[in-house]
Amino acid sequence: MPDPGTVLTRNWLHFGRILRSLGFDAGPVRMLPFLTALTVIDLGRADDLRTAVHAHFGRRRDELPILDRALAAFLGAHGPDGDAAASSRTAVRERGAAVTLTGRQLKVLDEGEGAEGAEEEEVASYSQVEVLRQKDFDTLTEAETAEVRRLIRLMRLPAGLTRSRRARAGGRDRLDIRRLLRRSLRFGGELLVFSWKSPTLRPRPLVLLCDISGSMERYTRLLLNFAYALKNASTRVETFVFATRLTRITRLLRSHDIDAALNRVTASVDDWSGGTRIGEAIETFNRRYARRVLGHGATVALISDGWDRGDAAQMRQAIARLQRSCHRLIWMNPLMGAPGYEPLTLGLQAALPFVDDFLPAHNLANLEALGALLLETASRRPVRRQTPVVATA
Description:
By secondary structure, the chain is α/β, with parallel strands linked by helices. The protein folds into three domains: 4-134, no CATH class; 163-203, no CATH class; 206-390, 3-Layer(aba) Sandwich (Rossmann fold), CATH 3.40.50. The chain has 16 helices and nine strands. It has helices at 4-21, 28-38, 46-57, 64-75, 84-95, 103-106, 118-134, 142-154, 177-184, 217-233, 258-268, 278-288, 290-293, 312-325, 346-351, 364-377; strands at residues 161-175, 196-203, 206-211, 237-242, 246-248, 299-303, 328-333, 357-360, 389-390. A seven-stranded mixed sheet has the order 5-4-3-6-7-8-9. A two-stranded antiparallel ribbon has the order 1-2. Helix 3 (46-57) crosses helix 4 and helix 12 (278-288) packs parallel to helix 14 (312-325). The N and C termini lie far apart (50 Å).
């Protein structure tokens, strides 16, 4: 039989994997103190266990219910007295093996809790979520729209990590010459104690440019929910909206009430559901904001259907400059979900040679795919091509 402590550690590392799949920061920096806390609390007390999870992984109040559901999915069936922790601990002692988690358990985000028929409710909820993930935003009913908005608020897209120019002490990457020479003064200039440094890792910045013109009206509200979720999940997100002019809404999205934040955005934007001048908006961004928000290797995600009333030559020049200034330029188009769609508008024809990735944005799965792309490409620059990488809908 394996050592119980080793089995318990292995099982809780599975729990960290659940949290990472939900977008929480559950890396070694947080998992090691959490595992240490498990050695001093009573695992038979569900409240103590839940408090430890909240203290180590919760950053905002709205994340606590998600952590509770993830913990319930990890612990599995409740004991007769409702003590999930004791039930799980007993099961570990009896089996002596790691807990096996299914994809269905990772998706338990519905409101149901531990009643009879919970298994059937879980399957039904998971199936409903899967259907909504693939359904076009343009075909959603009012109830489905509300559910998609809730799912968007629960999204935690990983932005990926990039190396900062600043270095931290420690590691074995490079010699810290300045500290090495300073320490050598203690020994008469002899290099006896070596000092090392390694680069600091931080999330790569993300800039959202969202089209709110009349042709995007069917998608605008949900896409702004997406922008709100991204902004409140990370401090390194800048958000702009445009139709005939460009408006920065980053500060307007800083609120615990999403409806109040979106109402402020609606009230402050003068060209809501108006015409579209994408080239002019990008040119304004390049002139007024690019040096400020793109200076640290930001990724730019432009969400628009490509219908443009401006000058194609202006579009080409502005987006070429934008691509040169950012780490990666992504264009997400909601119309790519339509059968037989082709980017034939003059604006898109002018812009696409300077776009690194051309992605769909017509359902929830497409928005989640953006997170996967950001995580995959955070540490490397794209190969600039004459034509973009087009993803299938």
